[in-house]
Design a protein that fits this description.
By secondary structure, the protein is an alpha+beta fold. Helices cover about 20% and strands about 30% of the residues. The termini are far apart.
């Protein structure tokens, strides 16, 4: 003959099950927060300033791991806080201490011409000039990129709000480096 179940044991199992669900949910939330805050996050790109590298509406994964601890590299694609409400994606052109200028559609860094293989030459409104001539001094009243700052440009030079308009970007405003596009699925790729 079986012994009758105690009425409290069913409630204990139910409470234990609920407690495990709460613990699991809390662990998932904490891990999600850590990953998004300190490791990786995703962004939707709005606008055409990074064409043809990144298209309007593409979703990208941004690597935040250790980026604030390392020196940025020339030509990194970065996400940064442009103001309180907006984050921008642009390409680093000038690093701290660099003297740079454009002449005849050629980038010069510290007096040496630098190839920009990622750019596609296109004719805009009948003009073959892709990047208008400028010097740092004309744009910013500075001869070189200040310490703790970078100079950024969009890949679509004729349609980009970048350091030519908003000035130098403080390195502590950089969120991270764009690594991968993941949406739409046919456009999944690593970003150079």
């Amino acid at each position: 003959m079986r012994e009758p179940k105690k009425s409290g044991s069913g409630k204990k199992l139910w409470r234990r099950g609920i407690w495990r669900i709460i613990q699991t949910a809390a662990i998932v939330l904490v891990l999600t927060f850590i990953v998004r805050e300190f490791m990786f996050t995703n962004y939707i790109v709005y606008g055409q300033s990074m064409l043809p590298t990144i298209k309007d509406g593409e979703r990208i994964i941004v690597n935040k791991i250790g980026y604030e601890l390392t020196e940025p590299d020339r030509f990194d694609l970065i996400i940064f806080h442009a103001d309180e409400d907006s984050d921008y994606i642009k390409r680093i052109i000038g690093l701290p201490g660099d003297e740079l200028y454009y002449e005849a559609d050629t980038l010069y860094v510290n007096g040496e011409s630098v190839e920009e293989d990622f750019l596609e030459t296109i004719s805009v409104n009948g003009s073959d000039v892709f990047t208008d001539d400028f010097t740092l001094e004309n744009l910013t009243d500075e001869h070189t990129v200040p310490e703790g700052h970078v100079f950024v440009l969009g890949d679509n030079r004729k349609n980009s709000v970048d350091s030519r308009q908003i000035g130098f970007i403080p390195t502590d405003e950089i969120v991270g480096r764009a690594n991968i596009t993941f949406w739409p699925p046919q456009n999944i790729r690593f970003i150079d």
